[in-house]
Amino acid sequence: MSDASANSASIAPEASFGDFFALLKPRVMTLVVFTALVGLLAAPTPVHPMIAFASILFIAIGGGASGALNMWWDADIDAIMKRTRKRPIPAGKVTESEALGFGVALSGLSTVMLGLASNWVAGGLLGFTIFFYVVIYTMWLKRWTPQNIVIGGAAGAFPPMIGWAVATGGVSIESVLMFCLTFMWTPPHFWALALFMRKDYDHAGVPMLTVTHGRRSTRIHIFVYTVLLAILALGAGVTSIGGPVYMAFAIVLNILFVKGAWDILNRDEDMSEVDNFKVERGFFKLSLLYLFLHFGVILVEAIMQRFGLGGW
User: Fold this and answer.
1) CA 45, CA 164: separation in Å to the nearest integer?
2) Same domain as 48, residue 134
3) Exposed e or buried b for every residue in 79-92, given b needs 16+ CB within 10 A?
4) Fewer CB near the last or first residue (10 Å), C or N of the chain?
5) How far is the C-alpha of 110 from the C-alpha of 154, rounded, in Å?
6) Looking at residue 55, what DSSP letter applies?
7) How many CA atoms lie within 13 A of 194 on its CB side?
């Protein structure tokens, strides 16, 4: 971490509740909570509402702990990148030591409390997820390899497996499929972001694919991963977490998503940077809707099946 960020952190004023809440990456936490909730409710074993509520709360806290520790470690590059320079540490609102202590405390609390509230398989999965995101992705992969997002994406894919484990006490093919759906979605989602934020990664020295292999290679990778994701998403529709409603939505969403990736792949090299950014930003925004709707329809199918209305 840079001397500049350390100096600014050392004179940070007393942090407010909002500053510490920002360390939790609330936008990312929303996705964590939603996919974990879908995993829990899609499981065949019913869960008492109080246990379900407590479990989702501790999963959310664990996701937030990962965000705080990520910001602690990345304080130096966050201060350089336009997208992240207003985060609490580079903005001088929270010190690095405060973020570290906050993240470690929440990591231990969330893992232990989830194990006590539900079962130790779920607690262990949450603890491993935090470790994977902070140590494997943030500390190792992010600054070392352009495949950082591909491998590191596993961290964001675990929440539905954790939710499923809360209900069942284990892992099954259905929870693995939900994991794979998020895992395969992550690279095209973040590479689209990297295409229109490349200068940030250049300045920070982060070896994103756009920096190490260029835009053309990144666009090819986006298209390939999107096609593979579409095959996986449609294949999930014929399993027990799918059904006619899921399949109808999946067909439309994946046609749109593959079309968006095709547009990025075949964009005119003579187009202005502004016009290109419109295409890439559009795909990035669609990717957010894509994942939420897929998991939303998995949830709808699960509810319908409880009433004997869904499934094949």
Assistant:
1) 9
2) yes
3) bbbeebeebbbbbb
4) C
5) 19
6) H
7) 31
Give the helix/strand (H/E) hosting 74: none
d(CA 241, CA 235): 11
The pTM of the full predicted model, rounded to 2 decimals, is: 0.89
- Domain end among 143, 171, 199: 171
CB 143 within 8 A of CB 206: yes
Q: How far is CA 74 from CA 5, 58, 282, in A?
A: 10, 24, 28
User: What phi, psi does 185 have (nearest 5°)?
Assistant: -75, -30
pLDDT at residue 116 in the model: 98
Asked which of 149, 171, 193 is the last residue of a domain, the reply is 171
What count of Cα atoms within 13 Å lies in the side-chain half-sphere of residue 78? 25
CA–CA distance, 272 with 63 (Å, rounded to integer): 38
Whole-angstrom distance, CA of residue 143 vs CA of residue 149: 11
Question: Quick one: pLDDT at residue 279?
Answer: 86
Residue 51 in 3-state DSSP?
helix
Residue type, 271: M
Asked if residue 177 is part of any domain, the answer here is yes
| Cβ atoms of 271 and 280 closer than 8 Å | no
Which residue numbers in the chain have pLDDT < 70?
1-13, 268-276
